[in-house]
Amino acid sequence: MHSIARNYLNQLNADYLQVHRRKEDLFWSTYMGTSDDQAGFTAAEQAYKAFCANPARLPELREMLSQAEEADLKRGLGGWIAFFECNVIEDPAAAALMDELVAAEAALFARRRELKLSLLDEQGQQVAGSLPAASTSLAASPNEAVRQSALAMFHTLEQWVVDNGFLEVVAIRNRFARAMGYRDYFDYKVRKNEQMSPEQLFAVLDDFIARTEQRVQQSLAELKSVKGEAALLPHNLRYFVSGDVTRQLDPYVPFSRALKDWVESFRRLGIQYRDATLTLDLLTREGKYENGFCHGPVPSFWQEDKWVPAVVNFTSLANPAQVGSGWSGLNTLFHEGGHAAHFANVTGNAPCFSQEFPPTSMAYAETQSMFCDSLLDDADWLKRYARNAAGEVIPDSLIKAMIAARQPFRAFNERQIALVSYFERDLYAMEESVRTPDAVLALARQWERKILGTESPRPLLAIPHLLNQESACAYHGYLLALMAVEQTRAYFLQRDGYLTDNPRIGPDLAAHYWGPGNGMTHDETLQSLTGEGFSAVPLAEVCNQSVADAWAQAKACMAAAQQRPPAGEGAPLNARIRVVHGSELIADNSESEARMLADFEGWIRRQSEVEPATPG
């Protein structure tokens, strides 16, 4: 017979799943552009937030915890207490401000969806623009006018953002945070998301910036001496760093084969999805949210002795007709697929351990996805998977060229992540009377020049994370995650000697990183696997490597891979996989993985034949 506390936990789990799933299903359909039920989504999100912020829950849970005797029951109730402590808004004025904030963000999102942006194509024609298309043009287009138009599109979006409600959203966020007892919204989010104060965060970021300052200045000076001062202009920088390599790499990583590469690589790593249902929407289209993401309408957990498998959706923004999109789409597939693996493997006894919001640390969540996408840059992964249409393996010379193009700007790229936090800290600290559109844009340019040494090729206010409540004031999580990724890579390399197709990696990540969910802190999961606490030093050391050292490391990696016996096929991913394009089903594995991969590749090839490849 169940105790009162056990019944309470079971009912709370069920109630949460209902309100969570409705919100997440509407989130997916509105963000994918398959539904215009913005009002329904807003109502579902408000209902979800009201559930999470219900002040009656905490005293009830504490009472149930005092009655609980079994360790697993105490663990589940304790997880819910941590969850509600992050979300409960006890002050009525703060609760009203949260409702106002949700409505203001929904209105901003709806207006943003209606905004039509444009840029030049390679023929000099003005065409519909998107964030991924502009980024790809800046990296890959040989036409300077096309690159200038891509940067201009970003600046147009920035101006639109500051003129169309974002600054009002910032003001409401600050009023809400102060009603909750924090200095401002940045202070509130850092403490809630990462269990750190802003001072602790910037001690880490300042240390990283100091360790890489000399390297980033050296990188800019070297680029200027080889390519001329114009190479440092924001519309040129990405192209002169990686444009040629992007074009050379493109035939070896066609998007038509991306799904196959993901499935086979994850299988050989021993990654399992524990009977999850995965829906993948991988191609760009008008009306679709312009950033890859992963979310879980159903979190995985044990409901007593019954396993509740995850339902996970993730998206990328590939355009098979655009040069460079195969590589960027593959990176997004591995990144979001890593998120999906994490959220499908959380084995707590309540769904609160497996959801993506606080008390789940963003840095912890991003460590899982970024570790997976880091494998794509490894020389032995490229040798194993990157092949052109004739079946020829990527040549050593191209891998060397990739290192020569990217390694000098590794520090620049990681500092670009830190940049967002410096800007947002000051944005939310500004007095409301001086937080004008011109002042905010000037602040953005000021921090870009200070951290990067030049204005950013991805202007700050064109980054969509700033507009969304969950991702605002959280971008530093990506950099903290990269630090943890380098620690994790170093551990596996020291123990096993290799990463690509290493079948011990999936089970170890599942046991030490994924299984506990937010029941352990980020630092505790690192300690569990690697035996060491969090450190920024390994990432700084990798950023500061010379091209010669990085190439020597890559050659050793490829030589070692040749000595290992070929990896087997690995076990199936243990997932129901559906690949969609909006409302259209492209492929699924209901018959077999092989049939799904063949259907996907054929569909992509047919799309490419309709629209020939363009570089921008």
UniProtKB/TrEMBL annotation:
Q: What InterPro entries is this protein classified in? A: Neurolysin/TOP_dom2, Pept_M3A_M3B, Pept_M3A_M3B_dom
**Top-level taxonomic group:** Bacteria
Instruction: Tell me the Gene Ontology biological-process terms attached to this UniProt entry.
Output: peptide metabolic process; proteolysis
**Which SUPFAM superfamilies does this one have?**
Metalloproteases ('zincins'), catalytic domain
Peptidase M3A/M3B catalytic domain location: 138-459
Q: Which GO terms describe its molecular function?
A: metal ion binding; metalloendopeptidase activity
User: Does this UniProt record's set of keywords contain Hydrolase?
Assistant: yes
Entry note: cofactor? Binds 1 zinc ion.
Report the cofactors. Answer: Zn(2+)
What keywords tag this UniProt record? Answer: Hydrolase, Metal-binding, Metalloprotease, Protease, Zinc
Q: Which Pfam families match?
A: Peptidase_M3
Task: Provide the transmembrane region boundaries.
Answer: none
Q: What family name appears in the similarity comment?
A: Belongs to the peptidase M3 family.
Q: What is this protein called?
A: M3 family metallopeptidase
Q: From which organism does this entry originate? A: bacterium 19CA06SA08-2
